[in-house]
Structures are given as structure tokens and as C-alpha cells.
Amino acid sequence: MKSYLSLIPISAKVRRRQNRMTLLCIIFAVFMVTAVFSMAEMGARMEQSRLLHKHGSLSFQELFSSEMGQSLILIAGILFLLILIAGVLMISSSMNSLVAQRTRFFGMMRCIGMSRQQIIRFVRLEALNWCKTAVPIGLGLGIITTWGLCAALRFLVGEEFSEIPLFRVSIIGIVSGIIVGVVTVLFAAGSPSKRAAKVSPITAVTGNSENGNKVRHSVNIRLAKIETALGIHHAVSVKKNLILMTGSFALSIILFLSFSVLIEFVNYLMPQSAAASDISISSSDGINSISTNLAETIGSMEGVKQVYGRRSAFDIPAGLNGDKTLSTTVDMISFDEFDLDCLEKDGMLQRGSNLSKVYEDSHYALATWDRSCSWKIGDKILVGDEELEIAGLLKYDLFSSDGLTDGKMTLIISGETFTRLTGVTDYTLLMVQMEQNAADEDVQAISDTVGSNYNFSDNRGERTGGTYLAFVACVYGFLVIITLVTVLNIVNSISMSVSARMKQYGAMRAVGMDERQITKMIAAEAFTYAFWGCAAGCGIGLLFSKLLYDFLITEHFTYAVWNFPASLVAVIILFVMLAAILAVYAPTKRIRSMEITETINDL
């Protein structure tokens, strides 16, 4: 061996199993950044091609000044920073645990003359050595994922993605991935390398750096049993490790909440409605003049899946909450049963709404709403000589271009209620949904039936379902990866923390602590990390989620209102708790299978 640095590849082979989580963290960071920036570049190339067709020439300044170009830069930049921070915390946490397990090794290196600076250099170069394996794997996965996504967008989605490049390698994505891989590792290696340098030669004998820590007070057992109190003490006694562990969990939760906002952004950008029509037929004079017979005729034609219509009446004198002077006006629009069902399917109703009251001939209605509205569920509206009660509120005004009511109430009632109040049975608008395998000839037959008496519109070319599914699939794919890495990080970190204290656990077993108590102690440590990780992650993540929601959604969709994502937080807590339970299983099984003397002599 020519130099102490020759130990680096030897150590990597010997500790291959222990290094897996660290390698996975690096691969995750490189893969995410490579995929994000590669897709951003492919999107920019697609936008460039579109603008070239439109304008004939295009400069980079024009490209990046476009709305799509600015959105791509902003989103990619935010994700870059979040992934970088998450990667640093996860890798640093993993490396700290590795250093804690190798205290005897670093103590021996100090015994044979290695200086603190050499220890720091050794740990950093050892970390960079992982990049030789992890970075190429991350780059390869990022490139392959980009190719797969581009192919899916072009051939499965089509529409505006028909010009997206295929099998192109993004230099920006590759360079960004390499930079993140190396920078993340160098940042992450800072704290562990300094910790390793502080190991004294005497540690070569004891094999446990924590033995040198001064015990200033005994473990508090008044609020919990001794094994639980010891587990909590193990988690909080080393502040740096606690910060890194909880920080890595918190960043994963923040990433999860941030990506979830992107899903809502796509929902607002490309709203999908179960009531979206393939064909719309409207009266040319804007009044209720489309016969119900036409609806029945079209409903029996080949290729037709669903026919539903709307009737409308505008500026009807009305009085709100006891106003018998009818000093205000409302608009009334009837929804068929299918149309009403779709409101609930699309999540358009506010909490507390009771849609079941609105069906058939009733005295109930739904009302459009925004934040400036004074009406609420349960209010009474006098229309003519009949009183209607608001059974539910919509989240925004479906019938305005900006989603705002501008102070004008629009009531949605059933067709039967509308006919009772107005005596009108014909439709203003008739909508048709076609079967998946419907042919152009079927649409033409409907057009011929309608004739020239009404306005006929074929909306099939305006479908955005494929594009929507593509974006949502990408976001959910990243969420799955984040969740997987978070779970693996928790499990691995707890396992390595236990391994670093194996000698302590052996001593505890030797003085009479049974397997059940050992399990409870490890569980207490794991759930302490989980608790603080959830508390920090949800606290900061919800704040960041609100800021991101306001920037991406509220600023462009003024009717949008951020709500506390209770179900999402519940899912996050459930996953973290399950990960903590999984983290306890492996190390406790390993301790139970070892003899007491073997555990004491471990390390």
C-alpha cells in the first residue's frame, strides 16, 4: 500500500452493504435533477419549434421570455434547490451514521500517525469515490426516464406534444446532474469528516466515540419507562445527528408537499370535468328553444354515450333571507341528473354541501360562490312566490371567465325544479358525450340531424385529458420516488444508528435487559426521529406549500383558495410511522440473533 488513500477502494468493497443507502441517495439526487432539467430542455426545444413555425425566427431571449420558457426555468430552479438540500441532508445523515460505526477504525488511523487533516481528506475522498458509481447510474436513469416520458408524450398524448424531441441527450441535464452529485457529496461530507477527525487514538481501544461524551444528568424516567427514556435519550443526545436525521425527513416531506401543489396547478391549468362534452348544440338566439325531442333522438343514435342539457333564465327578481321586495336579481340554470352527479365527481362542491337535496322537483338549489360573497349554505332565496334554500356552494363560478361571481348569484337547480318555477321545458344548451370508439360518421349523422336551426360544435379536438394524465403521471412518479427514498433513508438511518451502539446494547443485555425492552428502546429512538421529522417537515412544508400555491395558482386563478391538506398530511404521517416501524424490525432481529458475548465484542 503506497498511501493511506489506497484504503478508500478497499473500504468501499468491504463496506459495500453499509454504503448502499448513501449510494442510493446520490443516485436519487442525480437522477431527479437530470430528469427535471432534461425534460425542461426538451420542453424548451418543443416551444422553440412551435415559435419558429409561428414567427419564422427565434432568439434565446424570445424563447425564455415566453410564458412557457419562464415557467420551465422557475420550476426547474426551485426543484434543483430542493433536491440539492434534501440530498445534502440525507447523505450527511447516512455518512454520520457510517462514521459512528467506524470509530475504532479512525482511532487506529490516528494511532499510526494520521493527522486530523488527513482524516478529513480521507472521508471526503471516500465520499467522492462513491460518485464514480452513483453519478453514472443516476445520469443513465435520468436519460432513460426522459426518453420514456418524451415518447409517451409524443405518441400517447400527442396534441401539443407532437413536436417534442425523441431520444435527444440533454447536455444541460447531464451537467446539472454531475454538479449536483459532486456538490451534494462535498457538502454532505463536511460534518462527518470533521466528526471523524475528532476521534482520539484512545477510541481505538474503546471503539465508541460516544463514551467520551460527558453525562451531565441522568436519564429522566419519571415520564416513561427506562427503556423508552433511553431510546429518546439516544435520539436527542447527539444534536447534530438529531438535526440531520429530522432535517432529511423534513426535506422529504417538504418535497412531497411541494410536488402536490404542482398537481393542483395542473388541475387549474387543464381542468378536467366528467361533464365535458364532445359535441355541444346551442340555440342560435340564446333562449330555451332546443326541443326535448331532439335530445331523445340524439340519445338513441349510434356512438352516443350520454346526452344532457341545460336550461337558463337570467336576471330573475329575487330576495335573499327574508327580503320580500325582491330587490336583487339572480340567474338560474338547470342541470340534468348526470350534470349534477359530475359536480360531485369533479370535487366542485364545498364542504357541508348536500347535493342529494337538489335532485328532482325540490325547493333546494346550489349557488356559485367566491370569497367576496355574503351568502352561505342554509340561506333562503325568494324567487317569485316560491322560496329556495341553498343546499350547497360551488368553489367558484363555473359560468364566468375568471371564476368570480362579481356579486351576482347564479343558482343551479334540477330540470324538474326549473320547469316548475318557469314553465320552460326546452333547452338552451344540449351536450353530447360520444363512445370511445365513435367514428366521424357518427358525429356527422348528429350534425345532419341538428341541421341549421342550431349552432353545432365538435369539441373532440379540444380534449386535454391525455396531456393532463401525462403531467400528473410525471408528478406522481416523482412523489413515489421521494416516498421510497424517504422510507429507505429512515430504515437505513435507524439501522446504522443501532449498529453504532451495538456494544451498548450488548452491555444492557448482559446486565439483564430483555429483548422486549431492547425493542422498545430502539422503537422509542425511531419514533423520536419520526415525530420531530413530521413536526418540522409539516410545519415548514405547509408554509412553503401555501407560498407556492399563492405564487403558481392564486396569482393566476383569483378564485382559487388554499385549504389545509388534511388528507395529504395524514398520508405523510402514516408513511413516516410505517417507515419507523420497519426501521425497528431489522436491527432488533439482528440483536436477538446474536449472543450476548458476541454483541459486547462487536466492532
Could you please describe the fold and organization of this structure?
The structure is a single chain. The protein is an alpha+beta fold and about 600 residues long. Helix content is about 60%, strand content about 10%. The chain contains 19 helices and ten strands. It has helices spanning about 5-15, 20-55, 60-65, 65-100, 105-110, 115-155, 170-195, 205, 225-235, 240-270, 290-300, 335-345, 415-420, 440-450, 465-500, 500-510, 515-555, 565-590, 595-600, and strands at about 280-285, 305-310, 310-320, 330-335, 365, 380-385, 385-395, 410-415, 430-435, 455-460. The two termini are about 25 Å apart. Residues about 205-215 have low confidence and may be disordered.
Topology:
Elements: H1 7-14, H2 20-55, H3 60-65, H4 67-101, H5 103-111, H6 116-157, H7 171-197, H8 203-206, H9 226-237, H10 239-269, E1 279-283, H11 292-299, E2 304-310, E3 312-320, E4 328-335, H12 337-345, E5 364-367, E6 380-383, E7 386-393, E8 409-414, H13 415-422, E9 429-434, H14 440-450, E10 454-458, H15 465-500, H16 502-510, H17 515-554, H18 566-592, H19 596-600
Parallel strand pairs: 4-8, 5-7
Antiparallel strand pairs: 1-9, 1-10, 2-9, 3-4, 3-6, 5-8, 6-7
Helix pairs in contact: 1-6, 2-4, 2-6, 2-7, 2-15, 4-7, 4-10, 4-15, 6-7, 6-15, 9-17, 10-15, 10-17, 15-18, 17-18
